[in-house]
Amino acid sequence: MIPLSLGEIAAVVGGRVQGDDAVTVTAPAVLDSRQAEPGGLFVALAGTHADGHDYAVQAGRAGAVAVLGSRPTALPTVVVEDTEGALQTLAAHVVAQLRDGLTVVGVTGSRGKTSTKDLLSAVLSSTAPTIATTGSLNNELGVPLTMLRTSADTRFLVLEMGVRRIGDIAKLTGLVAPDVGVVLNVGQAHLSHLGSREAIAQAKGELVQGLAPGGTAVLCADDPRVVAMRSLTDRPVLTFGHAEHADVRVLDVVLDRLARPSFTLRTSTVRAPVTLPLVGKHQALNAAAATTAGLAVGVSLEAAAAALPTASLSKWRLELRDLAGGATLLDDSFNADPDSTRAALDTLAAIEGRRRIAVLGEMLELGDGSEAAHRAIGEYAAHRADVVVAVDARPLADGAGERAVALADNAAAVEWLRGRLTTGDVVLVKASRGARLNEIAAALVSGPLDVLADRPRNGR
């Protein structure tokens, strides 16, 4: 973050300073007091279950020098009426001060956003200082927090942009108009909020409509709803995908015994081989998206291809872990929708092993078609796994038929797995974040069963 005094911050956000207005913030803003850095700003939000203002002292002990909040705290505080709005205003101001030397890339899609963002960060970091979204902090709070991590040295800013409702991405591009907008796909995530794939496409298309003057849209040539977004902009468009007409094509994908892909990326004039350390055939398409975005900002195909193997993904995204006793864990527990679950099951089927076990939980926010979608995934899983462990997901178990084991909760799943896993087994763990199946993965690696006992799932 660029250095700003509290007086300067107050002037930008329309607040007042409680305490010394000469105190200067030199480090990023955080929402979690435990993550505060020396010289940083703690953003205190008053939530339903906790009030961030009560953690100001803890943030100060961690290094924060000031607070942005809606009431005074023990630290010097910029007091505002709307903390979230002030955070966004401050982020927009900071990036505006750096805009002449900064290229901004936005990434959205129903699935693959975080993996593509991680791959793109590797591509851009190989050429110049780059700031990218941490994990999946892709909403109205996460995007401004990422923006506030920029400094005078930053040359690329990669922003993952999520959506739950029409207008969400438009608000984010209102904070900073991207020079490049990457749209990966239009799937079924958040159907319960948006109602139809057409509405999801409309929401994702806001990234294309929000490009900066002279910006470039990077679109997936394999998804008709994404290709149709050409009509939303008069800016240049580059495409990627398996399709013959894609500007950057993915060719000759081959998986090794752990389902890690090798493939060729090709433009009209150049070919480059790539081998990824990541798991899953679909990562080749994500790599093509990252490469195409790199081309849009001047990174050559060869340079991008060389940088892609250095990427590491955010946690809980098809992480391979060795388990005691010789089994292998494929942890994809961060989130799930039908498309991403099918991709994970395809990956499970491609990994060499004695027995493949799919541990699947509920896929949330699918709307009226949720039960049918879960049955369909159960049927799909039964063709790719030897055993389908359905955790609190009866329609999924019904779809899997004879291969299903229906269990009530995470603790039951851990107990069942621990009693049966043997050398050579491969276990996939996959569900929406609210199901917290990451607890199953953690328990299989090292955690005790009692961390799962007597706790209502999903906070209910």
Q: Low-confidence parts lasting 5 or more residues at pLDDT below 50?
A: 447-460
Principal-axes shape call: globular
Strand content: 15-25%
Oligomeric state of this protein: single chain
Q: What helical percentage do the residues reach?
A: 25-40%
Q: Gyration radius, to the nearest Å? A: 23 Å
State the total count of DSSP E strands.
Answer: 22
Q: Indicate the structural class.
A: alpha/beta
With helices defined by DSSP (H or I, 4 residues minimum), what is the helix count?
16
Widest sheet, order of strands? 9-10-8-11-12-13-14-15-16
- Characterize the main sheet: 9 strands, mixed
Distance between the termini: 39 Å
Q: How confident overall, as mean pLDDT?
A: 93
Describe this structure in a few short sentences.
The chain is an alpha/beta fold. The protein has 16 helices and 22 strands.
Can you walk me through this structure?
- By secondary structure, the protein is α/β, with parallel strands linked by helices.
- 33% of the residues lie in helices and 21% in strands.
- Helix 6 packs parallel to helix 8, helix 13 runs parallel beside helix 14 and helix 15 packs parallel to helix 16.
- The protein is built from 16 helices and 22 strands.
Element layout with pairings:
Layout: E1 4-5, H1 6-13, E2 16-18, E3 24-25, E4 29-30, E5 41-43, H2 56-62, E6 66-69, E7 77-79, H3 83-98, E8 103-108, H4 113-125, E9 130-132, H5 142-147, E10 156-160, H6 168-175, E11 180-183, H7 191-194, H8 197-209, E12 216-220, H9 224-227, E13 237-241, E14 248-255, E15 261-266, E16 271-275, H10 283-296, H11 301-307, E17 319-322, E18 328-332, H12 338-350, E19 355-360, H13 370-382, E20 387-391, H14 394-400, E21 404-407, H15 410-418, E22 425-430, H16 438-445
Parallel strand pairs: 4-5, 5-6, 6-7, 8-10, 8-11, 9-10, 11-12, 12-13, 13-14, 18-22, 19-20, 19-22, 20-21
Antiparallel strand pairs: 1-3, 2-7, 14-15, 15-16, 17-18
Helix pairs in contact: 4-10, 6-8, 12-13, 13-14, 15-16
